Amino acid sequence: MISRKHPRSKHRRKGRRSVEPTAEPVAKRFGEIVTEGVQRWEAFYRACGLEMDNGDGEWEDLINHLRAPLPISFRVRKDSQCEPPKSIFEEVTLARNGRWIPPARQFKWCSGYQLGCDPRTAKEAYPELDAWLKQNHGGIGGGARRQEVASMVPVSVLGIEPAHEVLDMCAAPGSKTLQALDVIEQGRGMVVANELSTRRAHILCGRVGESEGFMVINHKAQLIPKKHKFDRVICDVPCSGDGTFRKYPVKWKHWDPSLGRRLHHTQIQIALRAFALLKVGGRMSYSTCSVNPLENEAVVQAILKAVSPHGRLVHVKLPGFRTYPGLNHWEVVEEREDSPEIFHCEAISQRDSKKEWYRPSMWPSGSFDLSPCLRVYPHLNNTGGFFTAVIEKTGEPWDDQSTAEPAENDRTEGISRRVTVKVRKSLSKLADKRLYNIIRAGKKRSSPQ
């Protein structure tokens, strides 16, 4: 039966059979990839300083969840009249293998539902659900949205209101954009979705469909013009994605712990632009689908330092959804020959070849309490790994006529001179002279070549 399907479906099945993929014969090759990746992941993050409240026992629970497939989840629009089948709230025992499936969970803070099994098993356990999702899934008019529960957190904690103007900095594939649009009242509020890739932006338009309060723009997120300020900004930045491996198990084979370190500068730039685009009193959510402190708390720390004292972290709670607080201490780690090596700031200053990737902003400064951030680990709610922080703008730290990037003598700590120069050079390549003038705040320059 498997042989008649596309070969990739065979691979997916291998990674979705049980909590211990290697225990199944069909999972032999794929299971080895997962097992090796999980071992590296655990060693790396233990060295980073991630601690569990219940010690090794909780670590074992976390690792078991990383090896298991991600359960199916979806969200229902609050103004929708459609309701999921009642059968998903009942316990099911599969006749094929006697596997017990727990009832679905409902999260009222996001109108979300999470089944106790992966999509492949759900088709066997709840055949009516598959038909219901196909009938109600769609663009702006669809009542149901397929979305991972942890991915619903950033928009849910922003407190978006019907008349708000919302910006999604890195919108594709559009789950968070649709979630924000579900709250916005047409004719009063609006959602602007930014996506650098024109191909992905086109797909986003098709997914959302026609909506009076929806607009798509194409910019590098860190260079979005500051002509308009927003009440809320969704800043879900590009990241290493090591919290998504339950959904895409094949990624274990290509996981590189250094990717988070390499993305650190870009994430700071995008987050600072998001803060600049906020109205005073507005809020932004900074989020990644990673658990790496260099992509999470280190970036939030850099934002707060750059905008101090005009920004603050907001405490948020999600009823019935377990989270860990943000880290106030972590180690900067590089993986070498299967043994994580801890580098301290003094040691890195002696390694000239490493200077371009290691910056002071990667280390905890101790100047800010980062515990209001939300850390989501897979074993807490049977989800992927995720990180979210909500930052409120209490004042304007920069003049409205400031340039697109910090001045050379006022660069944000943690952003290298090389990256700053690259941003400046990219400005000269803009084809639209008017947009160029907006970004450079009226500074006259020669026409682009």
What key phrases describe this protein's structure?
single chain, Rossmann fold, 4-stranded antiparallel beta sheet
Number of strands: 17
CATH superfamily of the domain at 149-427: Vaccinia Virus protein VP39
What is the correct CATH architecture of the domain at 149-427? 3-Layer(aba) Sandwich
Termini separation:
59 Å
CATH class of the domain at 149-427: Alpha Beta
Number of helices: 14
Structural class: alpha+beta
Computed CA radius of gyration, to the nearest angstrom: 23 Å
| Overall average residue pLDDT | 79
CATH-defined topology of the domain at 149-427: Rossmann fold
What can be said about the biggest beta sheet?
9 strands, mixed
What is the helix content? 25-40%
Shape: globular
Which parts are unreliable, with pLDDT below 50 for 5 consecutive residues or more? Answer: 1-29, 345-350, 402-449
Percent of sequence in beta strands: 15-25%
Overview of this protein structure:
Helix content is 31%, strand content 16%. It is built from 14 helices and 17 strands.
Task: Draw up the topology in text.
Elements: H1 7-14, H2 28-48, H3 55-67, E1 73-76, E2 92-93, E3 100-101, E4 105-107, E5 112-114, H4 119-125, H5 127-136, E6 144-146, H6 153-156, E7 165-168, H7 175-181, E8 190-194, H8 198-208, E9 214-217, E10 230-236, H9 258-276, E11 278-288, H10 297-307, E12 311-313, E13 324-325, E14 332-336, E15 339-343, H11 345-349, E16 374-376, H12 378-381, E17 386-393, H13 417-427, H14 433-439
Parallel strand pairs: 7-8, 7-10, 8-9, 10-11
Antiparallel strand pairs: 1-5, 1-6, 2-3, 4-5, 11-17, 12-17, 13-16, 14-15, 16-17
Helix pairs in contact: 2-3, 4-5, 9-10
